[in-house]
Design a protein that fits this description.
about 160 residues; alpha/beta; Leucine Aminopeptidase, subunit E, domain 1; 4 helices; 6 strands
């Protein structure tokens, strides 16, 4: 049986599944954290923001297409995925970088398989990053779903 994305209504910061879970979200490449879905993450846990800011300051591998997992509970991780250039639209269009989203999801697929984890997310890249779901959804299908990772996308009520 072929996997497919599971669409749910609810809060992506409170994933409803058994076992190890990874909450995936998009970060920018300029060290900014303070608008959008990250606010919901920071309301629950301090570690993802702290580690993102430390990663940015250190500059080690802090670039588009990179992923860092942050453990926030015994069976729960947050994936900080760098896939947004700056925070405002410019001559290259909206901040989202689809190639970077694909690279992040490819890396995340390997991590999820290794950990036997499911992946949970809002409609990543479609808020402040300015992306469109018709471009993001195929990237999820081509990376996570094709490799057998269970994916849950949450639409906040």
């Amino acid at each position: 049986m072929v996997n497919k994305i599971n669409y749910l209504k609810g809060d992506a910061t409170a994933p409803s599944a058994e076992g190890i879970k990874i909450i995936a979200h998009i970060c920018n490449d300029i060290g900014g954290w303070g608008r959008g879905f990250v606010l919901a993450i920071s309301k629950r846990w301090k570690e993802p923001e702290e580690q993102y800011r430390q990663w940015y300051r250190g500059k080690e591998d802090f670039r588009l297409g990179e992923v860092r997992l942050v453990q926030v509970e015994s069976h729960l991780y947050v994936a900080n995925m760098i896939a947004q250039r700056d925070v405002i639209s410019g001559s290259e269009g909206p901040p989202i970088r689809y190639e970077a989203v694909g690279a992040c999801l490819h890396t995340l697929a390997g991590q999820a398989i290794e950990m036997n984890a499911s992946v949970h997310m809002p409609r990543i890249g479609c808020g402040l990053a300015g992306g469109t779901w018709d471009k993001i959804e195929p990237l999820i299908n081509d990376t996570l779903i094709k490799k057998g990772v269970d994916v849950f996308v949450y639409d906040f009520e």
